[in-house]
Amino acid sequence: MKVFIYGAGRVGRALGRAIQDHPGGELKLCGAWNRTFARAFETSRLLDVEVSAGDAVPDGLMRADVVILSVKDDVVEKTAGALARHLSHRQVLLHTSGSLPAQILDPKGIKAHMGCVHPLQALAHDDGDPRVLQGSFFAVEGDQEALACAERVALVAGGQPVSIASASKVYYHAAAVMAANYQTVLMDAACALMQEAGVDTATAVKMLVPLVSGTLSNLEALAHAEQPPGQGRAVVARALTGPVRRGDVGTVRKHMRAIDKLAKRKPEACADLPALYRALAQRATELAQQAELPPERAQALQKALGRASS
Ligand SMILES: NC(=O)c1ccc[n+]([C@@H]2O[C@H](COP(=O)([O-])OP(=O)(O)OC[C@H]3O[C@@H](n4cnc5c(N)ncnc54)[C@H](OP(=O)(O)O)[C@@H]3O)[C@@H](O)[C@H]2O)c1
């Protein structure tokens, strides 16, 4: 099955390399395209196929069985619309966006099969290293033919395909943003607090990353352990540590007082921290109850959080 990469950014390059390097040869890269010439040229050093640029429809695209459309979200629909005119009923167009449905175009107007293959992974570099995809889950979606192709792409990249229904995809994507992107935002908030402890941001990140890694390892171990059915939230709760989990109300109060003062002193950088801390502590209290935090401790925490925010 021949695959064409349309959009040689971080995802396009990594998928292209993964397909190219796969020893099985069940998928074969037949070409790539990028809007700007400079990036197309760079990509031609990473992929052993012709990489074109510009407005003309690339030859390789017509020869492909599967076209992976890995352009930025804002232009997926427009680009798919322009490409679809050239694609036949034997071809599959897969986009890689987690926030858009597989069927981005009206199926009445196009012949190609439509689908989506979304790597649930944070690709921060554009070096095309395909190892970042290995072991990742891939949300796959689309009509029957597109779904089969999306699954193959995920497997060839060393990932695990998971079918997500179009209607609920927004929750899937919001979950990914919450768990990964906002993890970075939490790190930024933690660094603002570390600064008050006299630790600069670079050092703070170095200090906090092993702590976060430890938490992620705990979650990973729990996720892989045998669980009785329906125990989802209680499992996550077992990875929770810290003052809320222990029911240390005094510590939480002290944090809130200090953060409130900081927000007043440095509103430009810290005005949102009191609400952020309280919202997370509130949810942590509910979670800790799943991990057998005694009800009287939970109530004391709720009261402290409520009082402090009133
Ligand atoms: N990065 C991730 O962690 C990640 C993970 C999963 C899924 N995704 C999804 O994968 C897709 C690509 O993301 P990415 O991270 O690879 O993005 P990226 O590295 O920023 O690359 C974006 C690509 O879109 C092209 N592009 C931008 N504007 C265009 C236009 N007007 N017409 C045609 N092409 C245009 C860029 O071409 P130029 O080089 O010419 O600018 C480039 O090839 C997105 O749908 C994204 O949501 C990303």
Q: How would you explain this protein's 3D organization?
A:
The protein is an alpha/beta fold and 310 residues long. It has helices at residues 10-21, 37-44, 59-63, 73-84, 144-156, 169-196, 201-224, 232-237, 243-246, 249-265, 267-270, 273-290, 295-309; strands spanning 2-6, 28-34, 51-53, 66-69, 92-95, 113-119, 137-142, 160-163. Helix 5 links the parallel strand 7 (137-142) and strand 8. The longest helix is centred in the middle third of the chain and has 28 residues, at 169-196. Bound molecules: NADP nicotinamide-adenine-dinucleotide phosphate. Residues 7-12, 34-36, 39, 70-73, 75-76, 79, 96-98, 118-119, 121-123, 126 line the site of NADP nicotinamide-adenine-dinucleotide phosphate.
Keywords:
binds NADP nicotinamide-adenine-dinucleotide phosphate; 2 domains; 310 residues; single chain; 8-stranded mixed sheet; elongated; 13 helices; Rossmann fold; alpha/beta; 54% helix
Helices and strands, with pairings:
Blueprint: E1 2-6, H1 10-21, E2 28-34, H2 37-44, E3 51-53, H3 59-63, E4 66-69, H4 73-84, E5 92-95, E6 113-119, E7 137-142, H5 144-156, E8 160-163, H6 169-196, H7 201-224, H8 232-237, H9 243-246, H10 249-265, H11 267-270, H12 273-290, H13 295-309
Helix pairs in contact: 6-7, 10-12, 10-13, 12-13
